Amino acid sequence: MSENKKRLRIGDVLVQSGIITATDVEKALDYSKQTNTKLGQAIVALGLATEGDICEALGKQLSMPVYTDLSVLKIDLNVVQRLSENFARQKRALAIDQSINSDTGATVYTVVIADPLDYPTRDEITDKFYPSEVRFVIAPESEIVRSLSQFYRNTEAIAKYANQLQTEVVNSAFDMSSDLLGVDDATSDAAVVNLLRTVFEDAINFNASDIHIEPDENVLRIRQRIDGNLTEQILNNVEIAPAIALRLKLMSGLDISEKRLPQDGRFPVTISGKNIDVRLSTLPTQYGESIVMRLLNQSNGLLTLESTGMPDALLAKFRQELNQPHGMILVTGPTGSGKTTTLYGAINELNQPQVKIITVEDPVEYRLPRVTQVQVNPKIGLDFAGVLRSTLRQDPDILLVGEMRDKETCEIGLRGSMTGHLVLSTLHTNDAISSTLRLMDMGAPGYLVAGSLKAVLAQRLVRRICPKCGAVVKPTEDEVMYLKYALGLSEEEILSHEYKLGNKGKGCQYCNYTGYKGRVGVFELLVLNQKMMDALRREDHELFARLAREDPDYKPLAYMGYQFATRGITSISEVMKVAEIVK
Asked: Which pTM value belongs to this model?
């Protein structure tokens, strides 16, 4: 390696390339010393240049390839593992491919690095692959960090901490009732904290909505729900399950001596700079306590209706109903369908100084300014119905009831909407039309539903086709039949969109090889008209359903899903999972 290359500095390269000036370099050097960061990081932090600018300049100077987007590459998972997780994260390096040198016949490994001027690191990597050859490629550091989280997923660290905890539990007759109560020198306490921190970091990196910790007969399963689907890591350390459960129960303020009954709690945690509110549920099982944690990211700011993904036309109609002075509006769907996001988005829009808003929830998920939020506690008699009666005496303009659970809650909510209040709530039903039948099944009389209910918004979440590897394929025979019966479309009309109606993507490292990345909401909005209300007063469910389907403004869930599929946003197979055919 020549002296010139050894002396080459990133500031010199950027100045020679005309990207920054010598004065900028001095500013960045000062900032670098103050913050104890590398010069390149300081330059990006000060906004003097982008990571892409730096990579392109270095690539031109060193005659090295530059990959600005690693997600488009087909990366060999076996090659990735040639570098240990700790080394890869510390050195910001990722092995991505192997090939054969046609001249020498030697194996050549391609390694992506963030700092090509860090020659000691390059030498270390070369030594690790010896006698094979190494071809270095430059990529932005943020891109490498993202890819590292995609590939390594902290599985190595989770297994390591699990083994450490098992050693402590088995060898030292670990006394969980004392050690986990905060003894500073308890190594077992440190092990369980490290394990949980790593599990949380992995979940946050992948935008998981839930973490499941499930003891089995011989193994411990840690599962994460990502984009609605569970992924699993199996640990051969089932002995550590009680220690994990105990630590989490302590963090949630639960009774650590009670292992026979389910318990619910919550606690805040900060992971990777994000404030996460964790809702925890324990359930006694045959092999120990099963724990499920719902992760609520409080760092995202106020939820908005735009963030739900509603189309503009439907959003305008929904807002029109929200601006009514009184009446009930229901948001329906199964658990995990985004109802909370929609309701909080609505409350944020309605939250004005001149408006009194009270919410009754179980539990309170997001804290809102100016809104009076009440969490029910059935153990002391503070149930939905009891709280709801009291809130009506608090002079509210708008009430949000977490869920219509029983006859008493339904009737109080419906009558409250008839006495000048706007009532928002949720209901577990399959679609908007069946919501009225569900209310009557719980004992609400038809005349009361007809006089109070203004609109029902049903929603589901479907996975988005990965933008990096989405493939155009012909819809299957089952998908064509589904669209024919669900929406009454002709086969010719369906196949006219054949070029867009694909199933999932091929799978790449960007989407963790699932073919999908992220989720989007599909909705149906039913606004009751006079004829529908008359049918409800007579409790004629069949007539009500027929009138609803004939309403030109009503579009079923399958219709919006189909529209998304024709635009390549989701797949028909995803729509089929959430929108059944209604005969």
From this structure: 0.69
